[in-house]
Design brief:
By secondary structure, this protein is α/β, with parallel strands linked by helices. It has nine helices and 16 strands. Helix 3 links the parallel strand 2 and strand 3. The structure holds pyridoxal-5'-phosphate. The site of pyridoxal-5'-phosphate has 13 residues, from loops. Pyridoxal-5'-phosphate (PLP) binds next to loops.
Length: 338
Amino acid sequence: VKPDDLRTPALLVDKAAFEHNVATMSSRLPGPALRPHVKAFKSTSLARELVSAGHETFCCATLREVEGMADAGMGTDLLLANQTVDVDRLGELSARDDLRLTVAVDSDATIAAAATGGVREVLIDVNVGLPRCGCAPGDAGRLADLARAAHIGVRGVMGYEGHLQALTDRAKQAALVERSMAKLLEAHDAVGGDVISGGGTGTHDLNTWVNEIQAGSYVLMDTQYNRLGMPFQQGLFVLATVISTTSGDDGWYVVDAGLKALAMDHGDPDMADPAHQVLFCSDEHTTVRPGEAAMPAVGDKVRMVPAHIDPTIAKHEVMHVVDDDLVHDTWPVDLRGW
Ligand SMILES: Cc1ncc(COP(=O)(O)O)c(C=O)c1O
């Protein structure tokens, strides 16, 4: 099958770009120096490629991701880098012998849930500036003591500087990451343990304070991360079909992929051909100006670049691994849902 023969909208993985990204990151952060974040791509087939590149430790954002990764035989060392009070599912996961599960906790209540669910290991999740999960740095030692009193092993700390991932002024970003990570190190002094986990694609090269980086988006990238000038290539595209055109100097054309095929929280997608300008997306359409380029014909196939990789992939059931001529593989997005 040729990529252009796929039914649209379809999610395409550029094989060469993906392989470049995985190899580049694995040489920078080999093995356990990288704890790839499954939330970005939600596919055990893709995760298996990362195992082949030497990574055996993974981050998950949902219990579904943990369950799916363990079912696929990749439960060597999974961190649920998120809080949960779902004691039933924690109990099911803790009873498995094919899984080493570590759960992030940031409160008395999440430690109690971990204890009731039979969780054996936790990380203390510290707020390092992103207003989301994480305890105050000064409370981390107390929470670690509480977990140990409940006979739970405390492996260390995590702190995700998500608010600093997309800064394009890299000198400013480096200074802010240092300040943010000082909070994590303060917490680590009080907590102890071997693991200091944090970072993401946007800070993977300048967060030298953690001992494992939780990056995920680097595998396929998006327009937001492309602005940072990282050594990763765009590897994710939405293939769409032109379904309507207009004529005249101010003409536009319409494709059959809209905001139900592309996440919009980071703005409009780009067209892969930069001459073409996205005007707006609606549910099942995107309206595009061809600019200086020729107006495409109804039935032509075009490629779009998502603004945000994680929620874009989560909208699709499969990703097709392609080069210019061939569909080489089809990876189910099997870790979708919760
Ligand atoms: C806890 C956590 N760690 C790390 C990341 C970094 O992921 P990415 O490299 O995709 O930005 C995220 C993304 O949101 C996250 O939620």
